[in-house]
Amino acid sequence: MRTSFCALLLCMSTLAGPCLGNTFVIQVNYSGDPTYQSAFDDAATMWTGLIAGYQNGVVTSRTFGSSYNIGQTVGTLFIDASVAPIDGVGGVLGSAGPDQRITDQAGFVLATDGTMNFDSADILNLFNSGRLSAVIAHEMAHVMGFGTLWTNNGVYVNGSGEFTGAAATAKWHSEFGQTGTPNVELGGGPGTANGHWDEVDGGGGSTGILDPLGRDMRLELMTGWIGSTSFVSEMTVASFVDIGFVAVPEPLSSLAILALVPYFVTRRQRVAR
Ligand SMILES: [Zn+2]
Q1: Which residue has the higher pLDDT, 63 or 21?
Q2: Does residue 193 lie within any of the structural domains?
Q3: Residue 13 C-alpha to ligand 1 middle, in angstroms?
Q4: Is 223:198 a contact under the CB 8 Å cutoff?
Q5: What pLDDT is recorded for position 99?
Q6: Which domain does 79 fall in, by range?
Q7: Ligand 1 centroid to residue 73 C-alpha, Å
Q8: Confidence of residue 75 (pLDDT cuts 50, 70, 90)
Q9: Is residue 15 part of a domain?
Q10: Tally of CB atoms within 10 A around 36
């Protein structure tokens, strides 16, 4: 599935440019301090460089406030972003999720509109330390459905700790050398449990689960606690295929990952859903 979409649209000839077949757009409505605008742009650029579009996307039912009507084909994810007090310095850095959704002809439940909130007590520090785009990318993934539309799409049962989507499971084996199905976080309480890849609670240690470059799972972008650096695994991209998206084929996708500037922290902080 990952290799067919864009190849059919004849855009493999330009490895450095965006895939012409990409139909996925993330439109962020952010009206806060313009200092932070570029971090929102970076995060959206990264995801639209990894996700090409939807497998089907034709609306068969919708929540009342969705930007899409029955019969239309979804293409743009609309996100309202705000900066406001959450819990003071440290702790929870942000939260996000879908507000409106549709079901497409293939039976996938897809977000059409969502919200991201970032703690005003943390955002300047995140920006100055180069981590803001990664935190925004993390929250943006929740709006796209990571950890928020898993049960709706039949790839997760709350409390099970096991993600059962086939595409991500294949990467759990090939990328991380594991067996069974990908482990989902059960610690951290509401907002963290059942919505992230598993790591040691509180980000308190290495998991021993390594990708081919030797990067520990604790540093993956979609675990529950932000790390000293971060990377986006093929497994995370594949998890979006399991909930209705089409992934950009490699190596185009690896260029998108490079767009996310590495970031550094001195202590672990929680990234709530
Ligand atoms: Zn999260």
Answers
A1: 63
A2: yes
A3: 36
A4: yes
A5: 97
A6: 5-9+24-270
A7: 28
A8: very high
A9: no
A10: 20
What would the mean pLDDT of 262-269 be, rounded to a whole number? Answer: 36
18 assigned to some structural domain: no
Q: Which helix (H) or strand (E) holds 26?
A: strand 25-30
In a domain, 159, yes or no: yes
Q: What separation in Å is there between the alpha carbon of 270 and the centre of ligand 1?
A: 8
Q: Would you tell me the crossing angle of helices 234-241 and 166-174 to the nearest 10 degrees?
A: 160
Which one, of 157, 151, 161, 140, lies nearest residue 243 by Cα? 151
Query: What ipTM does this complex have?
Result: 1.00
Find the 75 Cα to ligand 1 centroid distance in Å.
24
- The rounded mean pLDDT for the chain is 85
Alpha helices in 28-176 (DSSP H): 37-50, 123-128, 132-144, 166-174
Q: How many domains does the chain have?
A: 1
pLDDT score for 14: 35
Q: How far apart are CA 45 and CA 245, in angstroms?
A: 16
- Taking the CB of residue 250, how many other CB atoms lie within 10 A of it? 12
Q: Are strands 109-119 and 76-84 parallel, antiparallel or unpaired?
A: parallel
Query: How many angstroms does the Cα of residue 114 sit away from the middle of ligand 1?
Result: 14
Q: What is the pLDDT of residue 91?
A: 83
DSSP states of 174-190 as a string? HTT---SS-BB---S-T
Geometric angle at alpha carbon 40, from 35 and 44, rounded to 5°: 155
